[in-house]
Amino acid sequence: LYVESDEFIGSSGIEVISIVDPENPVKVGFVTIPAVHDIHTRNDTMWAAEGTQGAFSVYDVSDKSNPQLMGRTTSSSFGYCHQIWPTDDGKFFITTEETSNKTVKVWDATDMSNITLRGQYLGTNNLAHNAHVMGDLVFLSHYTSGVTVIDISDPDMPVEIAAYDTYPQNDVSNFFGCWGAFPYTNNNYVYASNFEGTLFILS
Predict the structure, then answer these.
(1) Could you tell me the CA-to-CA distances from 118 to 8, 98, 115 in Å, in that order?
(2) Are the CB atoms for 133 and 140 separated by under 8 Å?
(3) Is residue 89 within 8 Å of residue 128, measured between CB atoms?
(4) Distance between CA 40 and CA 123 in Å, rounded?
């Protein structure tokens, strides 16, 4: 179990907890990441969005007591580094910055010592929240633009192939509208939630 501590405290990071015995969880490791905001862990790899630190990083957590940094990308031009999600094969990852006019980015991580930017996308409201990857598709909760779906089969040219506007009132670049879009279902439904408290079930 990987649990984020409060990103606004000095000891911010990721608690690594063994739940082999779920009634007696045991802390087995800690990854110090200042201002960490969001993580995704699969098998023995952890992807981290470093919030106000202006960076996205990838860790090898196969040794729970001694996690190792595999790769990191940072830039003074980044907005608030909000979220990161890998492709199924882990060769690429998608990031969102939750800052007006900052794009959703597709990164090539085949060489962790040289993570490179490949493609970019931004919806009509110019403010994305979260990304979830399923095959060649990325499902985005894109605030007032609603749910947008992009095809990254060509990582250099992400293409919007579907959209559902959960907030038709406007497309302002502000914190209204779609907050989450979850595509991992057995019925081909996407569950999307609006900041204002409405659930949308999309087919």
Answers:
(1) 31, 19, 10
(2) no
(3) no
(4) 23
192's CB contacts (< 8 A; 6+ apart) are 141, 146, 147, 164, 166, 178, 180, 181, 182, 199, 200, 201, 202
**Predicted confidence (pLDDT) per residue in 123-174, tens digit:** 999 999 999 999 999 999 999 999 999 999 999 999 999 999 999 999 999 9
d(CA 23, CA 185): 29
Specify the residue for token string 């999309």.
202
The per-residue pLDDT for 27 is 95
Q: Output the pTM of the full model.
A: 0.95
> Within a 10 A sphere around the Cβ of 91, how many other Cβ atoms?
13
Could you tell me the pLDDT band of residue 30, with boundaries at 50, 70 and 90? Answer: very high
DSSP string, 112-146: TTS-EEEEEE--TTS---EEEEETTEEEEE-BTT-
Find the DSSP H helices in 7-154: none
Which pLDDT band, with edges at 50, 70 and 90, does 5 fall under? confident
Residue 113 tokens, joined: 């010592």
